[in-house]
Amino acid sequence: MTAPRRPMIAGNWKMNGLKADGRKLASALARRMKKLKKPAFEMLVCPPFPLIGLAGETIRGSGVKLGAQDCHSNASGAHTGDVSPELLKNMGCKYVIVGHSERRTDHNEKDADVKAKAEAALRAGLGAIVCIGETLKQREAGRAMSVNRKQLQGSLPEAANAKNTVIAYEPVWAIGTGKVATPEQAQDVHAVIRKELVNILGEKEAAKMRILYGGSMKPGNAKELLALPDVDGGLIGGAALNADDFWAIAEAAG
Ligand code: PGA
Fold first, then answer.
1. Average pLDDT over residues 177-192
2. Predicted local confidence at residue 3, as pLDDT
3. Active site residue 100
4. Can you tell me the distance from the alpha carbon of 24 to that of 30, in angstroms, rounded to the nearest whole number?
5. If you take atom 6 of ligand 1, which residue's CA is the nearest one?
6. Ligand 1 pocket, mutate which of 132, 170, 246 (most atoms under 8 A from CB)
7. What is the pLDDT of residues 46-80, one digit of tens each?
8. Whole-angstrom Cα distance, residue 72 to residue 62?
9. CA separation for the pair 72, 86 (Å, rounded)
10. pTM of the full predicted structure?
């Protein structure tokens, strides 16, 4: 990884845990983070919506940052069950994940929806973590690169820059499956994403923008993945539910 990009280690808790679990996990991370004078990584936890307040209180002042897993594209209104980025910001969130493959599948979100959410996040003053990634079928058909390029083009907010937007490459076949991308597969896609970012944003911004890898990242494979030239951190699901594992991944980044 190139020096000017500070690695981000983001924990996506998905639909896991109850109150006590969230408190325990957040406080274990906060305790460790507080001991670091100058952490080499930016650490983020993204709990389920109802735990955002609790997690925010628990990590306050520790340096661990708060994020959310999704948001609506509107600032307010009649959208039962949805949450606005403005409220997330108000609750202390710094980032919101948009376009996770589970949202794309479970809620039929398309690139245009993801882009609208990412733009709403920026409008509210949040950073957007824009997820893209190919399915196994697409990879086997030799379409991994074109699918990722297309998703990036369609999902990236207009006002994207290296400060307000992070990309997460998550091959769908690696999410929660234990099947991690090889370092070569990950680097190849990350390099293509960076190249496409150059086309869209220009050389300077593209060089500064972080591209995270996600999909079965664990303490045992993190070092190798995080050392790749275009991998600037991780978006971690399963292993983010265990403080020791998540911390070990973060240490592998620093
Ligand atoms: P995983 O999930 O680490 O459990 O594979 C990653 C993600 O979906 O963000």
1. 95
2. 47
3. yes
4. 10
5. 237
6. 170
7. 999 999 999 999 999 999 999 999 999 999 999 99
8. 28
9. 10
10. 0.97
pLDDT tens string 125-151: 999 999 999 999 999 999 999 999 999
Kindly list the structural domains of the chain, giving each domain's residue range(s) and its CATH number in brackets, ordered by start.
Answer: 8-12+43-48+64-73+81-253 (3.20.20.70)
* Site to substitute for ligand 1 among 129, 175, 180, most atoms within 8 A of C-beta: 175
Q: How far is the CA of 77 from the centre of ligand 1 (A)?
A: 31
pLDDT at 92: 98
Q: Is 72 among the catalytic positions?
A: no
Report residue 133 as tokens.
Answer: 């990634």
How many whole angstroms separate alpha carbon 229 and alpha carbon 210?
11
**Tokens standing for residue 251:** 């240490």
Distance CA 112, CA 99 (A): 10
Distance CA 237, CA 13 (A): 6
Beta bridge partners of 212: 168
List, chain by chain if needed, residues with CB within 6 Å of any ligand 1 atom: 12, 170, 175-176, 214-217, 235-239
Distance 209 CA to ligand 1 centre (A): 21
